[in-house]
């Protein structure tokens, strides 16, 4: 049943800001991870698809590392939201661009939100960017581990040009748990879970 638009009241500035940011975050569902195009992947996963598994992996890494799994997952959830404004920039492009400050971008993104909504997002991005907590390390490792796992999945599907993603992602891991998962992923079939 369609809603009668005559019954809809003009939203407050705060709810307008929340709704607007919700639409902005939807861009991540349509934005493809651009670096994979360099490996010949015609239809890579979206930033949102990547971020979901990063948040899940952060939970899995944090417990064994003695960190708060919910906090690590929360940091991971917000780690790429700035890409609604910048796009997904492959690492090969970054030397040619001035560094985008993810916290400054997030401040712009959340400027129209009520402080009670903006504050936890800003705190999460600041903590992730600072990399000064075990939860932030777990979230960062989850980002690298997700890339490694995705590269293995693309390789398993027939693309043989993903080795540099696997190698560089594995080298960037700092927690023992993420390193152990990566090493296991290198020998476990992506469909072993079906057995």
Identify the CATH class: Mainly Alpha
CATH topology: Hypothetical protein af1432
Arithmetic mean pLDDT: 95
Work out the helicity level.
Answer: 55-70%
Order of helices and strands: HHHHHHHHH
Q: Distance between the terminal alpha carbons, to the nearest Å?
A: 45 Å
Domain unit count: 1
Beta-strand percent range: under 5%
| Major sheet summary line | none
Number of strands: 0
The DSSP helix count reads 9
Lay out the secondary structure.
Elements: H1 13-30, H2 47-62, H3 69-77, H4 83-86, H5 102-109, H6 115-130, H7 134-156, H8 163-172, H9 176-185
Describe the structure.
This protein has helices spanning 13-30, 47-62, 69-77, 83-86, 102-109, 115-130, 134-156, 163-172, 176-185. With 195 residues, the protein is an all-alpha fold. The chain has one domain (15-32, 42-188): Hypothetical protein af1432 (Orthogonal Bundle). Helix 5 (102-109) packs antiparallel against helix 6 (115-130).
Notable features of this structure?
single chain; 195 residues; mainly alpha; Hypothetical protein af1432; 9 helices; 58% helix; globular
Brief summary:
This protein has 195 residues and is mostly helical.
């Amino acid at each position: 049943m369609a809603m009668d638009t005559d019954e809809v009241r003009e939203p407050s500035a705060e709810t307008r800001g929340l709704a607007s940011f919700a639409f902005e975050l939807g861009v991540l569902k349509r934005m493809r991870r651009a670096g994979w195009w360099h490996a010949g992947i015609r239809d890579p996963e979206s930033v949102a698809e990547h971020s979901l598994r990063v948040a899940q992996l952060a939970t899995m890494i944090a417990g064994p590392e003695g960190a708060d799994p919910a906090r690590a997952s929360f940091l991971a959830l917000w780690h790429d939201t700035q890409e609604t404004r910048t796009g997904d920039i492959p690492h090969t492009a970054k030397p040619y661009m001035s560094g985008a400050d993810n916290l400054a971008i997030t401040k712009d993104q959340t400027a129209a939100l009520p402080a009670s909504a903006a504050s936890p997002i800003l705190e999460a991005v600041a903590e992730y960017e600072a990399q000064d907590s075990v939860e932030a390390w777990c979230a960062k490792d989850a980002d690298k581990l997700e890339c490694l796992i995705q590269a293995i999945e693309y390789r398993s599907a027939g693309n043989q040009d993903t080795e540099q993603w696997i190698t560089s992602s594995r080298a960037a891991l700092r927690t023992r748990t993420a390193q152990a998962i990566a090493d296991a992923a290198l020998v476990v079939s992506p469909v072993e879970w079906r057995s």
